[in-house]
Design brief:
Rossmann fold; six-stranded mixed beta sheet
């Protein structure tokens, strides 16, 4: 199974440099709406079997045009929601950089717990569980080679990609997930294969190649010795 992790389009909080978190009513700005409208073209004719989304408005708005084109009803999963930043929610980023916890979030995020909110380690646990649960469910429905999309948030995507790369969470800040970017992970029985990270180009198709070990000559889930055969 292959999942496209889509970050929501640019929001009003992104441009205001405010940590939106789970604030109600944070919508896409004009650029974000353009990004949502362009999503179908970026995905082209890729056979997406299902769309899963964070419950927050900016994610639901991002996938609306795509879901309508595909004729699918998005599945909402709370586990893909934004980090609960607690008392940090709604504050200016410039203010937060002066907090002692900011340095922990940057250098030792596995130990970071937001006051009145959740820890980044908890975020990774719930998000990875959600992705793997949907992956198994959709494999049963559509077969092991099916493609699906999950629309969520920057830190959530970075945490899932870090897990797929077998990176310690303390290294997840090395991963980028820009607004409307797509990161692609193929899950096999033995391991995940990260096919693309932070794709912001016009078409995603070129980033979606068969994961290593799926060419019919190597066992499923095995990596090709010496690198890709392409």
């Amino acid at each position: 199974m292959t999942v496209i992790l889509l970050r929501h389009g640019r929001s009003s909080s992104n441009t205001a440099h405010v940590l939106a978190g789970r604030s109600e009513g944070v919508d896409l700005d004009d650029k974000g709406r353009e990004q949502a409208a362009e999503l179908s073209d970026r995905l082209g004719d890729l056979p997406i079997r299902a769309v899963v989304s964070s419950p927050l408005l900016r994610c639901r708005r991002t996938i609306e045009p795509l879901a309508e084109r595909l004729g699918v009803e998005p599945v909402v999963d709370e586990r893909l929601s934004e980090v609960d930043y607690g008392e940090w929610t709604g504050r200016k980023i410039a203010e937060l950089t002066k907090e002692p916890l900011w340095a922990v979030v940057q250098a030792h995020p596995s130990a970071a717990e937001f006051p009145g909110g959740e820890g980044l380690a908890q975020v990774q646990t719930r998000a990875v569980a959600a992705v793997r649960d949907h992956d198994r469910r959709l494999a049963e429905q559509h077969g092991a080679g099916a493609l699906w999309l999950a629309c969520t948030h920057g830190d959530v995507i970075k945490a899932v990609v870090a897990d797929a790369l077998a990176l310690h969470l303390d290294n997840f800040q090395r991963i980028s997930a820009d607004p409307a970017s797509m990161s692609v992970i193929s899950y096999t029985r033995l391991r995940p294969f990260v096919l693309h990270v932070n794709h912001t180009g016009a078409r995603l198709t070129s980033a979606l190649t068969a994961p290593a070990g799926q060419d019919g000559e190597t066992p499923p889930g095995d990596a090709v010795v010496g690198g890709s055969t392409d």
